[in-house]
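Project standup — Tuesday

K.O.: blocked on the structure for the chain from last sprint. Re-posting the sequence here as requested.
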Amino acid sequence: MSALIPKRSGRPKARILVVDDQPEIIAAFGLFFSERNWEVRGAGSVKEALAALEKETFDVIFLDFVLPGTTGLQALPGLARASAAPILMMTGHFDPELKTDALLMGALDCLAKPMNFAELEARVLKIVGA
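H.V.: unblocked you, prediction finished:
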């Protein structure tokens, strides 16, 4: 599932890792951000994400809550140890308690799906200082 969505040309604004077991979510991130010269890599599992983090650095990580064999909350500490990139949790079943737990475990924020990509772009620009 790990896929590198090509950037347009020139130096990318930022590198984004999207950890989600739904290929259409990764494809949506890739389509939107690559059109704006962002580099996006997808990982369909925590194992794939950790493998990507061993080889590459990212500016931002988007982490789904529901993943094969685990949850985003369970995966959060390991991903945070593997990368200094801010982690934004994503969920299709938003719950204020989940957001609180994600923040306490080190996530920068917890976002509800479906997401507004223009708002995500503004948020990532703020995070990376571009």
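K.O.: great, moving the ticket to review. The two ends are 29 Å apart (CA to CA). The mean pLDDT is 90.
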